[in-house]
């Protein structure tokens, strides 16, 4: 596409329940009836529908679960503040201003908003934050990139891609492939590096840490992400549109999106900036890959997409997939209390693996044969 293509974009940013200074979503709000979880899973694994065409139902968390979220936020506020601030300082030192934080919706959205606050409030560096869609097998939203570069006029050298965490590196690979395609065909050259809070698989380019823990924003859905759904790409979106989303304004009374940002940002002034190093990346990646392969062998699973490693990924499985089993290293660990509550609520069996290098993992129920050999690797939701 040529730069003039931006003039035909039929879309504009919106902020969800965030203040515009915290986040602008480059997503198009649409209406979309939810697909029951079991039906969604069958269609995904049967390759009759792509996961991005559907959304599972979202509901408000029960009071006890919400109390766990608030307790986790309070328990991890200082750690999150330190890691966010350290990552922000690394970005400020190594990237070209003016900076544009481009978070990958929606796991990356709260992290992007916090990085933007840290850059401005603590480091004195003005930055803008936009949250955009990237979809496995379908790539990044190129209309969103065109908007950033040609309508918002954000310099390409200052675009910084951010996500919440990585596990097996699926979205990292998708991002790098998408940026490579962009750089081959478009005049602006983009940097494909991905910055994350937590990297469990050694897949991100830069991470604040490699420890598997319950990042609080990862245990809720829309009510900690600006009341916005996971991104959607279906027949409702036209050539000039951003990827879509559902805006759950009916959940406004229970929204914790800005509350979460405020709790973490309140720790920035006292937080100590720590040096970010990449020394642990290779070892962490090797450790996770070895465990993943061993887990596949023990459970007779041929499709690695049926195993989701880490607390955050296990949480997503229990919230919106059909789980077969939850794996825990230590059921008494406070970091997995919410997983136990979710598993017990849904009747999901729990297995204990004391030697696993992660705090948790989840196995998705296969709708193919017993080993997952007929489940579609291409259509599984990340």
Task: Please tell me about this protein's structure.
- This protein is of the alpha/beta class and 382 residues long.
- It is built from nine helices and 14 strands.
- It has helices at 37-45, 63-94, 109-122, 142-151, 170-185, 257-265, 281-299, 311-320, 337-346; strands at residues 24-25, 28-29, 99-104, 127-132, 134-135, 139-140, 159-166, 194-199, 206-209, 244-245, 307-309, 323-328, 350-352, 360-364.
- It has a six-stranded parallel β-sheet, with helices on both faces. Strands 11-14-12-13 form a four-stranded mixed β-sheet, with helices on both faces.
- Strand 5 (134-135) and strand 6 form a beta hairpin.
- 49% of the residues are buried.
Please name the defining characteristics of this protein.
single chain, about 375 residues, alpha/beta, 6-stranded parallel β-sheet, 4-stranded mixed β-sheet, 14 strands, about 15% strand, globular, disordered N terminus
